[in-house]
Every structure is written in C-alpha cells, then in structure tokens.
Specification:
Layout (H helix, E strand, L loop, with lengths): L2 H4 L5 H14 L5 E2 L11 H12 L13 H15 L8 E4 L1 H13 L5 E6 L4 H8 L3 E6 L10 H7 L4 E7 L11 H13 L3 E5 L8 H7 L8 H4 L7 E6 L12 E4 L2 H14 L5 H12 L3 H22 L14 E2 L19 H12 L1 E2 L1 E2 L9 E4 L4 H15 L4
Parallel strand pairs: 1-10, 3-4, 3-5, 5-6, 6-7
Antiparallel strand pairs: 2-8, 7-8, 9-12, 11-12
The protein binds pyridoxal-5'-phosphate.
C-alpha cells in the first residue's frame, strides 16, 4: 500500500451508516442518525428530465470532461440568482458531487507542505482530501460556547508562512453553524489581506433557519464570500452541488467555481481520472438548477420542525448540551458530561465508545465527534422522518437516564 493512500481513513459517517444498514438488514430495528442525506425523493420534474434524457441517444455519449455547456450556463445563471456572483462557463467544472469538487480543487492548488486552515469541528472529508493532495490540514477548533464559529483572531493565530488556503463552510456540517454577513466579511478581508486562497463550501446554502437567515443576509443581499469580499475573486474557490438542495445525493453532481487557470487544471485532472459526470445525471441537474426553489423550501419546513424537536429532546438529557443549529440538517451536542459514567455495565470514556453503547443498547446510530476532529461530541442528522426521530431520541433518552 502506498503511504499516501494507506494513510486515508474510512469515512466515519459512511461507516456508521453502513453498520446501521447491516444491523437493519439482520432484522434489528436500528434507527440511523448517521447519513447526511434528505429523506425526501428527488422532485418529479427533475426525475422526468432524467427519464427523457435516458430515452435520447444524445445523452448516451460522453460529454466534455468538464461538463455539458448547457449545465455550465445553468449553473452560472443559478449562481447569479442565488449569490449575486457573476461567473462564466470557463470558471466552472462539473464534478461527481461536492466531494470530487473539493478533492480536485485542492489537488489543483496545493503543493507538498502547503497548509490549509480548517475550522473544526470539520466535515470528515476535508482533511483527507487536503492530505491526498499533499497539503497539511491545520485544524482551528471552535466549541459550543461560540456556536462552533471560529474568529479571525483564532485563524490569525494558526497562520504561518506555509499557510496557503483557508477553508470556510457556512452552514456547516457537522455543527449547523451559520456565520453572519459581518463575520463572513471579516474572515474574507483577513484572507485577502494575507494573500490567502479561500475555499468556500456552499452546499447547504439554502438550508438556513429562523433568525440566522436574517443575520446571514439582513437585507437579502448575498453572504457568499467572493461577493462580500470581491478582492478575493482571483483566489476564491466555491464548492456547491445539487445533493442537499434537491435531495439528489445519489445522482452525484457537484461543481467548482474558480479562476479559469485553476478550473482548466482541475478539468485536466478530471479528464484522466473520471472524465465527465454521468450525462443523464447532468441532464437532471440542468432541470434542478434551472427550476425554482419550491422543493427545498418545503423540505426546509420539515427540517426546521425536526431541528427544534431534536434540540429540545437532546437538551432534556442530563450530561448533554446541544446548541441550536442554524443551518444544514445536523445537531452536534456535547456529551462530555456523560463520559466516564456507567451505562448498563459499560463505562464509555470517549464519544466513540458512547456511540457504540448507544448503537448496541438503544439500536440508534450516531456519529462520534472524533470523526470531525473534536472528541466529546456526537453528530445526529435530523434529515430522517419525524416519527423515527422522536423514537430514536426517546430511546437515547431512556438509555442515558440510566447513566450513573
Ligand atoms: C459540507 C459538505 N460539503 C460537501 C458535501 C458533498 O456532497 P456530495 O459529494 O454528495 O455532493 C457534503 C456531503 O455530505 C457536505 O456535508
């Protein structure tokens, strides 16, 4: 095994999901809070566009490696509509989901030893993707006392002469944290002042709840980094995709927006690695990004209801502190108050061990904070049905009430 690939760890979130599914298949009534995917089907009009594409031989062929020109135009129009960010087709590369977008963008700009500042708790893929590209992830931890938001002072303390990129994500996976427009601006100005690149992951852009939406954009203006801080444009990479907004996780369509030379280099890489994203999935993505946001607005109502319920129920448990997530569809409670206590003859010392006890004893799958660079926490996705959510958290409540 090469050192480079041998060092990659399994995606903890996918591993938890696989374990939960395997137990379910074996007849155990497991409820999974592991997967980060909406429980809704992809909207009909998008599915119809794919069905039509399947019947048309034009869509049975390769497309340009970087994506269908019609899709790139539609992404440019959507980006202007939703973010006020004006880009051209040459600034866009269509990828196999946001994951490939992130990997290829890092591969295109990082040299060995380049440091990337990564706010933690971080989505588990970022550090792996940075390391695969030869870079060095530098986590900067924010905890529940600041709503899991990092400050410019913390970022500055982590900056060295090797820092090349700062990663930014709002709303965040795993915490649901949303930055205000002022915070976005402060971070963007700091990055620009020090000549840093910024990778901003906007995959949850349409899943912001309550007051956070107003704080992210008080007058409806954009809080997208390259719009708030235009001088960043030549060093800004935007990651996005259809997975979360249109309940299209399995279709595998994402994109990177960036300076033309970076997009050209990343396209060259993709042309040798995977070539184009499935032509039919690209046809579906055209329908998705060209359509309105009605479907995501409907999903948002359900997620918001579940968000309030899960936070209330988790905070009823002694030893758990769960700040209210403001975006995406994850709750990220601290469970530090439960570690070291006895639960059904076991004494979990870490959040990994606690997650194991919860899976074995309550038949509920959650992801331990270790996967996100912060032991002592659990991540629960609330993108599952209301009944399962209540049943699952009730089981956790009952189990943890026994902790002594
Ligand atoms: C923060 C974040 N970015 C990007 C992605 C990538 O999504 P996909 O590869 O399914 O498009 C995810 C998926 O979980 C995510 O949570």
């Amino acid at each position: 095994m090469s050192a480079r690939v041998g060092a990659i760890s399994e995606s903890a979130t996918l591993a938890v999901d696989a374990k939960a599914k395997a137990l379910k298949a074996a007849g155990r009534p497991v409820i999974g809070f592991g997967a980060g995917e909406p429980d809704f089907p992809t909207p009909d009009y998008i599915v119809e566009a794919a069905v039509e594409a399947c019947r048309n031989p034009k869509f049975h062929r390769y497309t340009p490696a970087g994506g269908l020109p019609e899709l790139k135009s539609a992404i440019a129009a959507k980006t202007l509509r939703d973010s006020g960010y004006e880009v051209e087709a040459a600034n866009i590369l269509v990828t196999n989901g946001g994951k490939q977008a992130i990997y290829e963008a890092f591969a295109a700009i990082l040299d060995p030893g380049d440091e990337v500042i990564v706010p933690a708790p971080y989505w588990t893929t970022y550090p792996e993707s940075i390391q695969l590209a030869g870079g060095v992830p530098v986590p900067v931890v924010a905890d529940e006392t600041t709503g899991y938001r990092v400050s410019v002072e913390q970022l500055e303390a982590a900056r060295t002469e090797n820092t090349k990129v700062v990663l930014f994500v709002s709303p965040s996976n795993p915490t649901g944290a949303v930055y205000s427009r002022e915070q976005v601006e402060a971070i963007g100005r700091w990055a620009a002042e020090h000549g840093l690149w910024v990778m901003t992951d906007e995959i949850y852009e349409h899943l912001v709840y309550g007051d956070a939406a107003a704080r992210a954009s008080a007058d409806g203006s954009s809080s997208s980094l390259p719009v708030v801080v235009p001088e960043l444009r030549e060093k800004c990479i935007v990651v996005n995709g259809v997975a979360k907004t249109y309940a299209m996780t399995g279709w595998r369509v994402g994109w990177v927006i960036g300076p033309k030379d970076v997009i050209k280099a990343a396209t060259n890489l993709q042309s040798h690695a995977t070539s184009n994203v499935s032509n039919v999935a690209q046809a579906a993505a055209i329908a998705a990004v060209s359509g309105d946001l009605k479907a995501v607005d409907e999903m948002k109502v359900a997620f918001d209801r579940r968000r309030k319920k899960i936070v209330q129920m988790l905070n009823e448990i002694d030893g758990i502190v769960c700040p209210e997530p403001e975006g995406a569809f994850y709750a990220y409670p601290s469970v530090k108050g439960l570690l070291g206590k006895e639960i059904r003859g076991k004494r979990p010392q870490t959040s990994v061990e606690l997650a194991e006890v919860i899976l074995e004893e309550a038949e509920v799958a959650v992801v331990p904070g270790e996967a996100f660079g912060t032991p002592g926490y659990l991540r629960l996705s609330y993108a599952l049905g209301d009944e399962d959510l209540v049943e699952g958290v009730s089981r956790i409540q009952k189990l943890l009430a026994e902790a002594k």
